[in-house]
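Researcher: Next sequence.
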Amino acid sequence: MDSPTINWSLIGAAALITGAGSLLLSVILLLLTYRSLKKIAVPPQADFFTTLRHVPISLVLILDLLDLALDFFAAPVGWIILGQLGLESLRGVTVIESLIPGTQFLPTLTAAWILARLGVRLPDPRTYQIREQ
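Model: Next structure:
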C-alpha cells in the first residue's frame, strides 16, 4: 500500500493565502478604527489587564491578525502601533507572544481581552518586593 504524499505546494499556497488575507484584514481594520483607537484614555501606570479593559476588541484583533500574517515580524510592527496609540503597557506581552514559536495560530490577545472583560485579575508584578534573606 502506498503511503500518502504531502502536497507541499498546496500547504504553501494555503499559508500564503492565510497570511496575505490576515495582513490585508488587519490593515483595513486598523485604517477603519485608527481615529477611535487614538482617543482611548487609559489610566497612567495601568497594568496589562487594566489596559485591556479599556481597549476595544478591534485592537486585539488587529494585533492577533498581524501576528498570524507576519509571524515574528509582527513584534516590531505591534510595538510601533501600540507606541503610536499610547498603549505601552501592552507592548511587552504583545512582543513576547509574537516571538514564541507556534502561537501565531492562537488568538492569545483576544483570549486575554475576553478574560479581562470577564473580570480576571492577576497581581501586578510591579508591586512585588524582593525579600532579602
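Model: The chain has a mean pLDDT of 87. Residues 9-123 form one domain.
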